[in-house]
Fold these 2 entries.
Entry 1:
Amino acid sequence: MSLKIERRQELDLRMFYMTPVLAVVLTVLAGFLLFMFMGYDPFLGIYYFFISPLLSGYGLAELGLKASPLILIAVGLAIGFRANVWNIGAEGQLTMGAVAGGGLALALIDVQGFWVLPLICIAGILGGMAWAAIPAFLKARWDVNEILTSLMLTYVATLFLSTLVFGPWKDPMGFNFPQSEMFSDSAILPIVLEGTRLHLGVIVALLVAVAGWVLMTRTIIGFQVRVVGQAPAAAAFAGFSRKRMIWLSLLTSGGLAGLAGLFEVAGPIGQLIPSISPGYGFTAIIVAFLGRLHPIGIIGAGLIMALSYIGGENAQVEAGMPQAVTGLFQGLLLFFLLASDFLARYRIRFEAPTSRTTARKEASAQ
Amino acid sequence: MSDFNFTRRTFLATSSAAALTMGAPMAFAAEQIKIGFVYVGPVGDHGWTHGHDLGRKAVEKKFGDKVKTTFVENVAEGPDAERVIRQLASSGHQLIFTTSFGFMNPTLKVAKQFPNVKFEHATGYKTAPNVSVYNARFHQGRAVIGTIAGHMSKSGVAGYIASFPIPEVVMGINAFTLAAQKVNPTFKTKVVWVNSWYDPGKESDATKTLIDQGADMITQHTDSPAPLQVAESRGVFGFGQASDMKAYAPRAQLTSILDDWSDYYIQRTQDVMDGTWKSQNVWYGMKEGMVKFAPDGDSITDAARDAAEKVRKGILDGSMHAFTGPIKNQKGEEMLPAGQSLTDEQLAIMDWYVQGVQS
Amino acid sequence: MNESFVLGLVTIISAATPLLLAALGELVVERSGVLNLGVEGMMLAGAVTGFAVTVTTGSATLGIVCAMAAGMAMAFTFGVLTLSLMANQVATGLALTIFGIGLSSLVGAGFVGIAVDPLPKLNIPGVSTMPVIGPLLFSHDFLIYASVALTAGVAWFLKRSRGGMILRAVGESDESAHSIGYDVIRVRYMAVLFGGLTSGLAGAFLSLSYTPLWIENMTAGRGWIALALVVFATWRPWWVLFGAYLFGGVTILQLRAQAEGWFDVPSQVMSMLPYIATILVLTIISAGPWRARLKAPACLGKPFRPAS
């Protein structure tokens, strides 16, 4: 008898949807052992991590609030990843979106009007796009690797924001602390669910995910993206422009990251501060792949990721766990989720060492 | 719905019982007070957050079973902070310390929703009926170490590793320089901004660079002991930050400014217990025990020690002020005439450097 | 050449060394066709292990060995997930970093506030006291010499050795390497483990030599810079060394410019310089006539499972 792994001829859809559930079950088991080993009540630990954040309307709204920037960014990144364009710098594009949109909000601070909010949203998108246009231009023109340029530009963006809020954009009444004035009400996203922080941007994020799904599956652009990514030679033969794909995917992901950044400053923050995002641009990369680069999968992955952060905070508050334990647990969760993909794509079988029949069957299957 | 509630309650009851059997201290005493702490960094940073966590531990030690403390570390300044603070407030914490400037607006937002919970925000400026702010006059400590630096520096140049140009850091640089110039009028302070509170490697690089530029006194407004380690290995002197860092630089550390939040945290806890807690805006210094010093290092000279002691006493009894005129800015313009002192209001928004600061 | 200038160069060398060590390992990993974004997590595991073992046993040598082992253990986890279970490499690498941050702060909790002696300098007799080149070339701790030797070793291995040829073949075309009988997965496992080893070593350099202490998250993003340097170097070892020294050099230069007050610009603008310089230099390299040689390994990031 030996263990044999073979690729499934077709993706097993039942397994495809079941495996995340299996991964969560495995994580719960591993978490149980981890918490017990660290001296915490394992039942309570799991309860605070996975269940108690979901038990109130407020908790669910927070989940949506935390997940929406991740979803928004990941949907954009997924398009690029499918076309083999590696935008690692969404964090920087997010920051520049916040700078552009937030800057306009500061300029319009005395202005009231329904048009202010759409205008700063557009500015946010353009800010993110402009920042993503640098790696796009360098890649399209001289084939400069976008992993390096987009990553390095993230540091530059953060420092640029810092220059502004420590300098010219500092609130004149703010005791020289690094923060801008609070935006006017016209520049703040309306709350959708009274008594929570769930704002309009969360709805937009969901709509964008759906739009991304339509784009990728129902349009010629989506088709081209997939072909360029999977079979560059065939794409060139069909006359799809590689350069156009570079521009398209970087501008889309940059624009969506910029919008996510703007939603943070025009949503729960309400002003510009030196650090806008706790690494959403990087976390969204995980979300994109956890969601298997599929916009609907990304919604699920974004929610799971958000839950793992909120659950971690919860476990710190309620069970007194140090953040190290919650981080470790989050890592485990991701490992299981990523590994579980395997079961959907491959079949594990036990069989006798060299059976002639199976060998022949495989040969004919190829 | 009622079913749902029932299940949840039973679940909690069982798990509490489980916790009890595992020997966790449980909150059955009716008068027990839950106190929450929100930290911007990890408790293992050996700097700012570490200092606040020592304060938390002092509260636990002082009140024992009468309090239960909770902390959440590495909380990002932004939307996450509001959620964490709210979570603490809604889970029965009666007193919540939020220990970073960026938690100011989130603290106020949550405070409005929880009028019965008391909030204490460090280093901010906005108060509310249930929100106090507190901060320490670190610049007083800087005046003392500046005096030592003025006495002991041979080159007359100090290297200052700075984080971000907020008023508190600016004040510290100025107070240090002014004190050193009282001893050596041509004293200069070279400042390098590392744009981080917390990056040992970069702090170490900055220190080496400053020593290469002729600085023979190293002081810092960043959190890690790396600058002092470099001072130790390069044969110059330095001052610790936030906690006693002698273990890292037994020869080089002349003294260290200590942030001691313990007394304040104990006092405010007592106030809540007694029902006497009131909103306030305090800026405590050496007199109130919020700014302290590590024991003098062995290398300190007698002259420096005596001069430092004089400054220390002067600040304690109020006869001395870290910012007394005449003070000129970097361009040589007089900012404060002789005989006057800068007011707290002027200090709180300080964004200019005194003559002799090179940044 | 004045003394201050020489001391500045020495500072650059030590600032560049952790980047160089971690990037060399990642270079080998990527040449085998695997993209491991978990360098930061592996460095932290190495840093905390190296420090903890050195403090507990008093032996820095043992500390360094254990740091390398810790990096390899992290890399092995990555290998199992991505090579055996074919999980997505980019996401797994990022998850490895989250895991490493949590694990290292858990292990390191008891070691904050403790000091160890820095690694001894290996003063090479006779030459270490010479002016200029003495401090510059002959008075470092051995990890710095090791980093340069490792660069040469990796360069030789990739270009001249049979093992290196197999590794490159696996990275350029896994299917053909497999069809002529090489065990692609095995080769990649070895490369990934080597990457863990040097990342662990880079971590140990940070916590035992560069700044001999442990505090949480002390790598402060150096793992990411190391990743960028591999791309910068267009997957060639000596270019990694150049990139690391360039990045370290511009970092130190901007600190010096601040201390001297050379430019009247906000310090944040000065801090941007190393990142902008790296982009500019890579653009110049990429735009030049030699650009045809700069391609990434063809199989980078793609999972491989033998057809039968």
Entry 2:
Amino acid sequence: MKIFWENLFRKNPVFVLFLGFVPAVAVASSAEAGLALGLITGVILVLTTILNYFLSLLLPKNARTVGQLVVLIILTVSAHRILLTLNPQVVGTLNIFLPLLVANSLVIYSLQENDLPFGAVILDSIGKSLGFLLALVLIGIVREFFGYGTFFGTKLFTSDLPPLALASTVPGGMIIVGLLLALVNMVRGQGGELHD
Amino acid sequence: MTSGLDVLVQAFTSGNLILAQGLGLYAFTRYTQDVKKAAKSGGITLAAMLLGGFILWVADGLAFNTETAELGLYLLVATCSALIVRMFLPAKFSVRDGLFDSALVGLILLLGRDGVSGVNVLWASLAAGLGYLITLVVMATLRERLELAPIPKALRGVPIILITAGLLAIAIMGFRF
């Protein structure tokens, strides 16, 4: 279970590993959008990891990348098709960012080979998925509060003017995510340098 | 989009993949440590974008009756262009190392969504790729200056890159084409 909790907090994909910034900046302008994309990404990530585990056993090393990408495309297109039937509104809200899951750096990063046993691989991907979901919802809550003055769609201020309309835009998203990362670094007592 | 120049200027400003659309942030945070690395990364992605645009232009005549099939085609085009460009790169370079980037896939999806067709696809791909390359180089130049600046520990690295990118993005929001 250690691997699960590590991915949730100590190795959080967004706040610590600096992955999945595109959804955080371009999509998570509200808590609901962050929750929706976080959930879909989580399901795709877990399924991809499971299928990737078996693919790595079946395919030769030089054909693995192509196989992994094809599986990822099939899963993403299937998710798009299912959501289009179940909830077309979500597909409309997420726009190109739903199929863009194919190039999500967190999902691509999870395709890297490791020597973990099957159970640990699943726990690892569930931990990463929940960590990513947590981060997107948190970023969505902060951006929604400043950008629209609401919390999960519920109005918090009597005034029609939001506290900081810029927060709901891409530039505002970059600044808010940057400040949240700095806050996490301050709590952890570390800098935000990238380490390969 | 009325002329080639309009498309080009739009790709640098209001349609900039990184600063206006929020795409390609993986490469933006990881491959901008120095100008050379940024130019190399941007150049490779530009080549993949051009190739993707070319394939899309060739496949323009294909008619699909469902949105899902069309989406599958766009994702396959992006994947094929990344894999083909990868064939011309040194063996140590992996598709996962930023080549199969959200900027590349996002561009192909945006071209499809906006209904860009004919030779305009090539122009739009070239313009978007050049805009992407220049943004990476500009950020690399800024990062070289930031290295020397007295920045609080918590803001060093990725946080200051994102905040700087946000301020750059606000600056280009002033342009409307």
